[in-house]
């Protein structure tokens, strides 16, 4: 081992010991970012909130408490200027469980409402559930989820890479049935995938210009509330992806590079704050990421990053275009490069 290697080796050991020794202290990124963010609208923060503490993700974050944020704590509609949609919750209705609650009939409080104990939350939370919103933009996602359906999810990830946090991660979101107690959820803005007979509406969301494929919102959506002025969203891969999920053939366009970048950074932070959350997805015996719902025992044993379709048989999100292996590789690289102290 040369001198330079030995110094690097010693630094790594030091970093490792530091990361063990300081588990209970407020976490910050290990150091300055080597490059500017390069995306996201000016004015966004870069920290998420867990049990009242701020944790760096190094990506543009808008909190529920920010002026242009989306607040899942609100017991009324966000877009109150519009007529009340049929079957939407009455004013005063909660859309989440404060703290973490067991899903048996007893509804045992596993993490207290208002808890400031990140370590205790880490004993309960070990899954990060990825969804696509079928709305195409986070603004309309919140309208559907919060205003119309009376549901909640911790994060929404818009096409420009802006991450909206709608409530503290200590709260139990209503987004993935049996995974709610033990999970954090994100709705990624995307029109979603379709089966062969159902492609026309999906195709109407994409056009090709001189630079390649890009997302084109329908006219009624306007700019979709996307924070980056004039943002043009392009699928990371410039073609329609085919694949199978839950045993059926599906077609879908990829997520934007800005969405992958933010999701990598967010996942790297979550996997370090929650020690039982592995930077990995459920895999079949052959080693490939499973493209089907998990059995009860598999689901119970799995702590890590998973799709909604791994949780429920009737779901197919985040879809066949979500590129698991490069994503997971980048999450692991990010964890190595920026250990949360
Ligand atoms: Zn979903």
Short note summarizing the structure:
The chain is α/β, with parallel strands linked by helices.
Description:
This protein has 8 helices and 13 strands. Residues 6-32 have low confidence and may be disordered. With 341 residues, the protein is of the alpha/beta class. The chain starts with a helix and ends with a helix. The chain is globular, with a radius of gyration of 20 Å. The protein has helices at residues 3-21, 118-124, 138-148, 200-203, 257-273, 296-301, 308-311, 324-337, and strands at residues 45-50, 53-63, 100-101, 109-111, 127-132, 155-157, 163-165, 183-188, 206-209, 212-215, 241-245, 248-252, 304-307. The strands form 4 sheets. Strands 1-2-7-6-8-5-13 form a 7-stranded mixed sheet. It has a single domain (3-337), classed as Peptidoglycan recognition protein-like (Lysozyme-like). Bound molecules: zinc ion. Zinc ion binds at residues 131, 308, 315, 317.
- Elements, N to C (H/E): HEEEEHEHEEEHEEEEHHEHH
Q: Strand arrangement, largest sheet?
A: 1-2-7-6-8-5-13
Q: What is the CATH topology classification name?
A: Lysozyme-like
Distance between the termini: 28 Å
Bound molecules: zinc ion
The helix fraction, in percent, is 10-25%
CATH class: Alpha Beta
Structural class, by secondary structure, is alpha/beta
Largest sheet: 7 strands, mixed
Could you tell me the strand content as a percent range? 15-25%
CATH architecture: 3-Layer(aba) Sandwich
Mean pLDDT: 89
Overall geometry? globular
Number of strands: 13
